[in-house]
Design a protein that fits this description.
single chain, mainly alpha, two-stranded antiparallel sheet, two-stranded antiparallel ribbon
Length: about 220
């Protein structure tokens, strides 16, 4: 009994085009007729319809959630057709020594607290008084060790001596160590009182003058 001839696989009579050729190059045919060209904004073949990932540099602000940003969109600009994806910017080189930036600020002293001025001036005047007392003691002991007081006392006694014995003036009765230190301590106490009072009064005068002139302007500089 004769058998029907076997069909060859390539001899298919289907009018459907191959699946892989559909939509390629915008010139796919269906049944020998040209198809509709692909739209210009369609994704490239093989991309799967996904956009290129966007890379952000360290410290760069990111757009709000839900904002569509293409891979070739510049920061805060319009997408550039055909542009390359953004790459992280290189970190700036560290500035060498001596290349720091100097910042300046202008400040104005509009008021001085009299109480704080009085406290500071009192402490400073006390320190000045102590320095005066110590300096006077050191100076007196230095002159006495050099014999200055003895020679001056001898010369003064010879000049002022009369016929009576021991009738001359003794210099050490006036410039002795005890008398010198007493006089120096009195000067230091007066110095403390006067400096404290004058400084406090100066604070009141400055506040009154600053109300009319605005105060003293200061320029401060800071290096990074």
């Amino acid at each position: 009994m004769p058998q029907p001839p076997a069909e060859h696989p390539s001899a298919s009579t289907s009018l459907m085009p191959p699946v892989g050729s559909a939509g390629q190059g915008g010139g796919a045919t269906y049944g020998g007729q040209p198809g509709t060209p692909a739209p210009p904004n369609s994704p490239a073949p093989g991309s799967g319809g996904f956009s290129q990932p966007t890379t952000y540099a360290k410290g760069q602000p990111t757009p709000p959630r839900g904002t569509r940003v293409g891979g070739n969109t510049p920061p805060g600009g319009t997408p550039v057709p055909g542009g390359a994806p953004r790459r992280p910017a290189a970190a700036p080189a560290a500035a060498g020594p001596g290349l720091g930036r100097t910042r300046k600020a202008r400040l104005r002293v509009t008021k001085a607290d009299p109480w704080s001025v009085m406290k500071v001036s009192f402490l400073l005047s006390v320190a000045v008084g102590i320095v005066i007392i110590v300096a006077a003691a050191v100076l007196w002991m230095t002159l006495d060790s050099l014999g200055v007081f003895d020679s001056l006392a001898k010369t003064l006694k010879e000049v002022t001596a009369g016929e009576a014995p021991n009738s001359g003036i003794d210099l050490m009765d006036y410039v002795g160590f005890g008398k010198v230190m007493t006089f120096t301590s009195l000067i230091a106490v007066v110095d403390v009182v006067l400096l404290t009072a004058l400084s406090t009064l100066s604070a009141f005068i400055y506040n009154a003058a600053a109300g009319f002139t605005g105060g003293i302007e200061l320029t401060l500089a800071e290096e990074d």
